[in-house]
Amino acid sequence: MTRKPLSLTRRTLLGTAAAGALIAAASLPQALDASEPLRVAGIYTVPVEQQWVSRIHLAAETAQARGDITYTFTENVSNTDYPRVMREYAEAGVQLIIGEVFGVEQEAREVAAEYPNVAFLMGSSFMHDDALPNFAVFDNYIHDAAYLTGLIAGAMTESANIGMVGGFPIPEVNRLMHAFMAGAREVNPEIRFQVAFIGSWFDPPRAKETAFGMIEAGADVMYAERFGVSDAAQERGVLAIGNVIDTQADYPDTVVASAIWHFEPTLDTAVAAVKAGEFVAANYGVYSYMIHGGSSLSPLGTFEGKVPAEIMELVAQRTQQILDGTFEVEINDDEPRSS
After folding, report:
1. Three-state SS for 75?
2. CA pair distance 130, 275, nearest whole angstrom
3. Can you tell me the distance from the alpha carbon of 13 to that of 104, in angstroms, rounded to the nearest whole number?
């Protein structure tokens, strides 16, 4: 099922959480035996193959392989069914529940208030609420890497026309697009952008058709925020920039580079906090920053030597500046527009 854009307000969520605040504050998870694997469950509204969720799933499987957690998951959960699945895992003794609640914010927080001894780490466009201390939020703040891919795209376009296909215009998508656009404009201020959203998190055919339209309108580089865009680019012989995962192996002549999300720092930090009895409401989105190892630029691979050397020197320079804190990529959550 798809995630829907948010319609809640901060005030609404504060009111929702308040009902369970006193109970939750008094009943946070206590320190656990560090040698015992933590029971973790994932709840996903899309298949685990989808880009965004696949990174969470990979991090959980990695932690399970190390023996840090035991992991189970449910995929393709509708927004209307999401609270029920949360309750089932909480009742089953799961100690940490991870997932994404972009379309079910209020209901998810109500469930978390009912289970103060369970830690919840949820993808959310809202910030955490200290009145609900067992509910932390995260997001894929991979704007640093998206900006670097923009530098590359700006050098690779010959038509100065770039197409961008996204799912929904919500903050975690908007900020990546803006960062990418900033990088491309730094290389070529004359670049035009075609921007569209398909209203779905997983509809490759629709994304592909949208991309075809942009290519017909002159785009020779496509920003593939959704699956399906790189397929269109490959069929029409133009280039693509990937997002969240590296798909170059599937599109060796098409995908130049990708902004990669690494969820491991986010999950590992949460697991350690739950085991130590120190899990609290917090913004875990910071662990997606490049400086924390939460994002990176993919290797050029088949495009090694095809991107101008001076651009790759700039990419290396900006990467080091991001890591040492002397260059900051702007975070802009506003909806991007065609220009």
Report:
1. coil
2. 20
3. 11
Given a cut of 70, the residues of the chain with pLDDT beneath it are 1-34
Q: What is the pTM of this model?
A: 0.84
Phi/psi of residue 46, each to 5°? -130, 170
Structure tokens at 278: 């120190």
Query: Distance between CA atoms of 43 and 33, rounded to whole angstroms?
Result: 25
Are 97 and 86 in contact by the 8 Å Cβ rule? The answer is yes
Count of residues in the chain: 339
pLDDT tens string 124-157:
977 777 789 999 999 889 999 999 999 999 999 9
Question: Hey, what domains does the chain have and what are their CATH numbers?
Answer: 10-139+263-276 (3.40.50.2300), 143-261+295-324 (3.40.50.2300)
Instruction: Report which of 133, 33, 51 is spatially closest to residue 100, judged by C-alpha positions.
Output: 51
Backbone angles phi, psi at 30, to 5 degrees: -90, 170
Q: Which two tokens stand for residue 59?
A: 């991090």
pLDDT at residue 111, as a whole number: 97
264-275 and 51-66 helices cross at what angle (nearest 10)?
50
Q: Which residue has the tokens 């200290």?
A: 130
State the Cα–Cα distance between residues 25 and 130, nearest whole angstrom.
9
DSSP annotation of 36: S
CA 174 to each of CA 86, 88, 155: distance values in angstroms, whole numbers, following the listed order? 28, 33, 22
Residue-wise DSSP of 67-86: TSEEEEEE-S--TTTHHHHH
Rounded distance between C-alpha atoms, residue 105 and residue 11, angstroms: 13
Task: Give the Cα separation of 74 and 44 in Å (integer).
Answer: 6
Separation of alpha carbons 109 and 319, rounded Å: 37
User: CA-to-CA distance for 8 and 257, rounded, in angstroms?
Assistant: 36
Element (H, E) at 255: strand 255-261
